[in-house]
Amino acid sequence: MILTDTKTWLPPNLQMKSDPHPLRLRTDEESWALFTHALKASIPPELRKLKDEIAKRCGGLPSLIVKLAEELSHKDATIEEWSTDFDIPARRLIALWVAEGLVQPKGDNETPEDVAERCLNLLIAQGMVQLTKKKLNGNVKMVRLPDVLRQYWLSKSQQATFLGVHTNTRSELSLGTNKVRRLIDHIDKEDISFYHIHGDCNTTSTSLTPYYEGVLSFLSFDTRKESKPGEEVGNFLCRGISSDCFLWLLVLDLENVFRPKLPEAIGKLTQLRYLGFRSTFLETVPSSISKLRNLQTLDVKHTSIKTLPNSIWKLQQLRHLYLTESSRSKLMLQHDTSFPSTLQTLCGLYIDEETPISDGLDRLLRIRKLGLTMSCKQGVMSLQPKAVVYWVLKLNQLRSLRLKSIDENNQPWELELKPLVSLVNLSYIYLLGWLRNPSIMSQFPYSLTDLTLSGSGLVEDPMRSLEKLPNLKSLNLLAKSYLGKKMVCLFGGFPQLRVLKLWKLEQLEEWNVEKGSLQALRFLEIRFCTSLKLLPAELLDRTLLKIEVIPARV
Length: 554
Fold this sequence. Notes:
Structural class: alpha/beta
Radius of gyration: 26 Å
Largest sheet: 15 strands, parallel
Strand order of the largest sheet: 4-5-6-7-8-10-12-13-14-16-18-19-21-23-24
Helix content: 10-25%
Number of helices: 13
Low-confidence stretches: 169-177
Shape: globular
Distance between the termini: 66 Å
């Protein structure tokens, strides 16, 4: 008997006499051969350059290769028609699913984000979504819904009356029977929304109401680097809100829209759960955002916003707050501030002597992802670093920790840290600064999968301790993290490590790797290690290992 299944896991009670046989993905050459065989059209010479791109998009899946060929058989044979896919950050997709309430946790120990991530991995495993880029630790970074699958699922959703598509052009302004639920601004002049957003600003507000009064999400992909996109989307929001549109809006995502002009009236959108301004170069946000009582995510990463008001803490449902590390983003805090107990993500926060840690930020105990930059003055004793350490040690649910210690000149400074072995959920650590307690190298939790050290000033070989971490997959030793001359990786060390980066270890002269060490390593990158003359002989003949060496600058 032969059983087939789309799932990658099997019931534990299933009795088998042989191991499961997973579907073999086709090579690029096999993918192209199958594609050309299934294609019911001739391929012009200029489109043969897309051979590698087509193979990559299909990911070696035979069914997807055939579907793509069938779909393209009905399209004009042009590069524009054959190149329409778009990569989506998994981070962004998961946040949007959670904001719209599409996923629900089943128990107290599970968050909506956990469920969304599991659903995304399941869609990838079943070939319904294509994985296009992984993080260094192996986690999903970018995904794509190939155009052929998008068309397929679009037709299925329309048959089930789950989804409608508005294709009205500017010349067809008559109102259809369906309401717009999800508004996407993709700069398509054939879409009626283009006229509303980017057309005549004198369009009366009332004309927008029949289209947008029931919108649940608004995403813009207008990435033109000029003032016009920000002005146009700002005017559109202002006109819409003034006519009672967007009052049911759950998601407003303007990521990469250059400096959108946000109206103060945005405070009326009290149903908002997700407010995304990442990479917009915004300098301020309206003070009225403190009225968004249902807001769960505020993302102002990669903006020019330096200060958020104390009123931000009125958002008692806030779960994720992303600030801009490079802009030294500060929060106006008071010791009697009532923090949202739901906060899980706090990234990009700048801490100085005025930031209340004890009996302030240390009351946030449900943090899962924490990113802080501590500013220290040379020659000045400060209690702030120790306060941060004791706060970190209380975060039992912490999964990701990014700590930077800098001086007035933005250079690495002393970094206070205690053993983190008690944080059993911690998987990602990034540390910048001279470690005053280097013994912590042997006191990281076994759950750690991704570690980056920079400016640590270690004088003893860190490999002797780090190679014992059973789940470590990515290790980055950056500038001045290790000041010694010799480094050794012993037999059996680093059993899961896949990525190793050595950058600017200028004193390193000798690196020995014993046989049986680094067995899972797939990528090695060495940059500007000026004194290291030879690579370990044990690594040179490994066919699965990619090695990149960038020599010293001339």
